[in-house]
Amino acid sequence: MDKFEELHIKIANYLDNLMSPSEEESFMQELSTDTDLRKLYEDELMLRAIFQQGEIKSEQQVKVAPVLLLWRKYKIAAIFLLTIISASVLYLILNKKNKEQEKAVTDNTVKKQTPINDSITKEQKPSELTQNIAGTAFNEFYKSYSSESDPVEISNYYNNYKEHKYDLVIAAKESDYQTMGIDDKNELLKQYMHLYKGLSWLEKNEPAKAVQQFDSVSSSPKNKTVFFEAQWYSVLAFLKNNNITKASEVTKKIIQTNSPHKRAAIALLKQMNL
Predict the structure, then answer these.
(1) CA 72 from centroid of its chain's CA atoms
(2) In what helix (H) or strand (E) does residue 223 lie, and over which residues does it extend?
(3) What pTM was estimated for this model as a whole?
(4) What residues does each domain of the chain span?
(5) Along the chain (274 residues), what's the average pLDDT of each consecutive run of 10 residues?
(6) Which class is 137-272 in CATH?
(7) 3-class secondary-structure state, position 245
(8) Mind giving me the DSSP string for 142-197?
């Protein structure tokens, strides 16, 4: 268990009231002197506040939704009931009228049903709102990938990406960059090439293809750096594709790690929950 995990467990035990009085006193003293612990503690407080806000909104939606459904149900029933009554009365009174008058009754019925169409139009607005939120978040948080510590063996592909030669990056084959007899190194190069290809697809406005490449980057102690980058840019690709649900899922995973994008992930999650 690394230091990050130990600190995270301490914070969780304190916030969940699982510490004894002496442990709480020791924790508070440590909190005043340990900078890493204090930063993680502040992040955890912010994260819990975001989750609590999301739960409250979900409860409100659950309470409101049945009322809306009930209103819509009886509203439609009332419209049809009025239509039937009107038609019956008109039939008794105007039984001997010509087809033109009957057509007028039909037109009147259609007009009475237009509020249903209006409600359907209103129900389409949330998807537009989702697109606006995703688009705004992407524009605010997206920055072109940049690094000074990537493997030198594939620096030409990194340079191609930075020079906007995305097709050259995407077209690269394993045989183009693999080194003979160094399996661990080859695996690391392969992970970075998945990252570069995903970044190139994202720049070409192909977020679905970008996600496929980012998902191919595996998590292991030897390539945590490239994995954290791929994980963060997959969030941005989901936003680019207007998929807030998937973006939120991956963002929550990032927050549970020591990713260099953790603070940005917390800020992004807060924005998506507004």
Answers:
(1) 30
(2) none
(3) 0.62
(4) 3-33, 41-123, 137-272
(5) 76 87 88 86 81 59 50 57 68 62 52 40 52 86 92 92 95 80 80 95 95 89 87 95 91 91 90 72
(6) mainly alpha
(7) helix
(8) ------S-S-GGGHHHHHHHHTT-HHHHHT--HHHH--TT-HHHHHHHHHHHHHHH
